[in-house]
Amino acid sequence: MDAFTPVDAGRGASRPGDGAPASGGATASRTAAPPAPGARVRLVAYARLAKFEFVLDYYLSVLVLWTALAGGARLAPDTLTTLLLFLLGEIGVISAVMALDDVNGIKDGSDRANYLGTGGTPLRPLARKPLLTGALSVPQATRFGYLSLVWGAVLWTASAVAAPERPLWALVVTGLVLFAGFQYSWGLKLSYRGLGEVLIMGCPLVIVVAPYGFVTGHLPALVLVQAVLFGLWQILVSCYSNTKDISGDAAVGRSTVAVHASARGNLLFIGALSAVDLLLTVGASAAGWAPWWFFAALLPEMALRLRQFTSFGRDGDALLARRRGVVAFRTGVAGIVLANLIHFAS
User: What is the pTM assigned to this prediction?
Assistant: First the structure.
């Protein structure tokens, strides 16, 4: 799952064996010493396995929903406790999804096909795939994935317990993400059954609305619109990744729109998603679901979205379009946060 690859973050990164030699000295043996180079490199490898540099955008969900709260509720102790626990649990759940996706990718050969060309020539920075480089073993990555999932489940449960409200719908959708998210490539392998795009859009949507429900007990139209946009902007990164990965995904049976559709059909699918983005942004203001000026805060995102799609239609460069999608996502989140701050300050 390469939904989050805005930059070649693997360049210049540490490799096994990097680092300064340990200093000697008998007196140092009983003093606290910095981690050995091997431990540091291993920590970096686990961070890359969790795609920590690339999934930071997911964690902006907490910023979106926090600014969507009325001013007095934002700093309430139970609000801050609930959101902190949810965010920490979110880190565990997303790390599990990413780790187990990489384990499956190394087992079925899809990562090798998508990252290594003929003769083993790297097609993308290999440092972001520690199982391909040998920085981690499959058993290590699998254990990390399961432990991350347990961590996420415990923290999300704690968040629900600490929450001032526990509406049934928020509990249900949180449970669905916990159950289904890590099975994107693992267990039920939902992305192999045609549900990959649904998960990539639905999970980000839920991590906006669920904690908002835990804090307030309800779900206003404005927050739902922002959550749908948050999920939609994620799929408008991932669908370009899927376009780049058609051959590798098809070889292992991963079922994506890009695999099954013709080139024109895939372009129409991406175009339809892009149109929904623009129509929902403008329509929310027109329908009264958001302030009438809401669309104005997202004009930069809409311009970037049009550029992303039209340039891809001309040159077919999926990786460039993906990077532009990440920029559009972050620009859109900044627009939503600004709109929320203005709206709730008035």
Answer: 0.85
Helix axes 318-345, 299-315, angle to 10 degrees: 170
Tokens of 179: 């159950």
Distance CA 205, CA 232 (A): 8
Q: What is the pLDDT of residues 293-331, one digit of tens each?
A: 999 999 999 999 999 999 999 999 999 999 999 999 999
- Longest CA span, the chain: 74
Q: Which of 294, 299, 302 is nearest to 275 (CA)?
A: 302
Evaluate whether 108 touches 29 at the Cβ level (below 8 Å): no
CB count, 10 Å around CB of 165? Answer: 15
- Beta-ladder partners of 116: 122
pLDDT digits (tens, 9 = 90+) for 249-285: 898 888 999 999 999 999 999 999 999 999 999 999 9
* Contact between 146 and 96 (Cβ < 8 Å): yes
